[in-house]
């Protein structure tokens, strides 16, 4: 209960800029992109050579005296020792939050004989602004009779969903043999450096009766797309639905996504946030909202959240301001502000629609990596066409600091529809943050 109060109190503190600095465990934001020219491919998360993960935890459901089941951490590797007081407090807060996001569905569980394993992820932001990603595999342990599902959660500061999904495949395979077989595999992984983009690391792992296995883990070449699966979004939503969602996100509105499966929510929301590249969503961002935090939708500031479909009625009862509500199961928008189709310049909107439709029809032809690249390029091209001239309107002084000239920047756009869009976009937090980094980038380059 105290943890829930902490989350709610923190969520209400979010302001347009202050929310970034005051981020707490429930106030989650995607990684910030590094400064660079618009359209450049920039690695924003996951430098080569880092540890793959901080720790692996197992979250199990434990019966309370009231007869309900509550998620508790029952295994942690490695155990942290000799932590300073501040580090210990931060870890305790993080370990309290993890079970809530591993079982966001609530406490209405019962032992079962059959359960389809699922993979999803969440993002936690510390008070200092640093981020940790939880990669989860919820599965039913091997055995006979009725059993409760458990979650294996890998906590890492590195964003690479596909790679960690493969690691969780190996964890699940070993779990069906014995928990004891998981430890040496994770130890070998922890001792291996995180590979550079496009590179492979090989992990040796011994499995009883199978001998030593060599497991190859390859990191995608395009680092900024390694936490994204646009194919999952295209399979759920048509291009004509994706564009109003993109338009709402670009103007930093409130977005609610609905689905029953946690994997669908996390994959699709990560994909929507990635459409904004090279800009970054800088407000409340919770791919899967735990049941006890449903009043997040009452937050008056922008948010992008995922909620299980079963809670739709409760969400609609909340006194929330205007929001775009998207049903990922039915592939349609349930509630809109009404002006979404008028936000983007019509010519560019049609170009993106044509591009998305082409990629959507060829889903069986392209690999997931190719789909990621093609979709991302369509949206990066949109930003290049509308605001790609920003660098020409940064005035540099002799000391090397820059000042963005907003009025000349907007006046330089010849298209009336583009200018109308850009005048709104320059007022967003994501554009301001991007420009602030651009104004500093010349100083950092000269200091190198």
Automatic annotation (TrEMBL):
It comes from Rhinopomastus cyanomelas. This is DEN2D protein. GO terms for molecular function: guanyl-nucleotide exchange factor activity. GO terms for cellular component: cytosol; nucleoplasm. It comes from the Eukaryota. Transmembrane segments: none annotated. InterPro entries: cDENN_dom, dDENN_dom, DENN_C, DENN_domain_containing_2, Tripartite_DENN, uDENN_dom. PANTHER family: DENN DOMAIN-CONTAINING PROTEIN 2, DENN DOMAIN-CONTAINING PROTEIN 2D. Keywords: Guanine-nucleotide releasing factor. Residues 54-445 form the UDENN domain.
């Amino acid at each position: 209960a105290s943890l829930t109060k902490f989350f709610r109190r923190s969520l209400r503190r979010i302001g347009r800029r202050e929310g970034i600095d005051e981020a707490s465990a429930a106030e989650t934001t995607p990684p910030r992109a590094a400064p660079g020219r618009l359209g450049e491919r920039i690695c924003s998360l996951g430098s080569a050579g880092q540890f793959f993960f901080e720790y692996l935890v197992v979250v199990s459901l434990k019966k309370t005296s009231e007869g309900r089941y509550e998620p508790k951490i029952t295994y942690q590797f490695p155990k942290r020792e000799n932590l300073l007081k501040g580090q210990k407090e931060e870890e305790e807060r993080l370990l309290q939050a993890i079970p809530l996001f591993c079982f966001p569905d609530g406490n209405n569980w019962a032992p079962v004989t059959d359960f389809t394993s699922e993979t999803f992820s969440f993002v936690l932001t510390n008070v200092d602004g640093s981020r940790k990603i939880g990669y989860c595999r919820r599965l039913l342990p091997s055995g006979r009779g009725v059993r409760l599902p458990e979650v294996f959660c890998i906590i890492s500061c590195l964003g690479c969903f596909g790679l960690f999904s493969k690691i969780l495949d190996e964890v699940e395979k070993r779990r069906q043999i014995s928990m004891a077989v998981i430890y040496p595999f994770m130890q070998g992984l922890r001792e291996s450096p995180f590979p550079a983009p496009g590179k492979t690391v090989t992990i040796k792992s011994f499995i009883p009766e199978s001998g030593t296995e060599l497991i190859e883990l390859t990191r995608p070449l395009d680092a900024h797309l390694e936490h994204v699966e646009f194919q999952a979004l295209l399979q759920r939503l048509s291009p004509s639905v994706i564009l109003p969602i993109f338009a709402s996100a670009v103007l930093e509105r409130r977005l609610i996504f609905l689905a029953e499966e946690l994997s669908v929510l996390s994959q699709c929301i990560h994909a929507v946030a990635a459409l904004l590249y090279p800009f970054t969503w800088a407000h409340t961002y919770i791919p899967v909202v735990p049941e006890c935090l449903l009043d997040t939708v009452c937050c008056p500031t922008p948010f992008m959240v995922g909620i299980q479909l079963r809670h739709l009625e409760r969400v609609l009862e909340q006194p929330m301001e205007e929001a775009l509500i998207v049903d990922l199961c039915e592939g349609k928008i349930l509630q809109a502000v009404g002006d979404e189709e008028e936000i983007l310049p019509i010519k560019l909107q049609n170009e993106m629609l044509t591009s998305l439709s082409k990629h959507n029809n060829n889903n069986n032809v392209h690999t997931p990596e190719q789909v990621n690249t093609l979709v991302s390029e369509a949206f990066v091209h949109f930003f290049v066409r509308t605001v790609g001239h920003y660098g020409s309107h940064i005035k540099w002084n002799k000391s090397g600091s820059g000042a963005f000239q907003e009025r000349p920047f907007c006046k330089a756009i010849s298209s009336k529809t583009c200018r109308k869009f850009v005048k709104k976009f320059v007022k967003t937090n994501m554009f301001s943050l991007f420009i602030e980094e651009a104004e500093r980038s010349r100083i950092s380059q000269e200091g190198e």
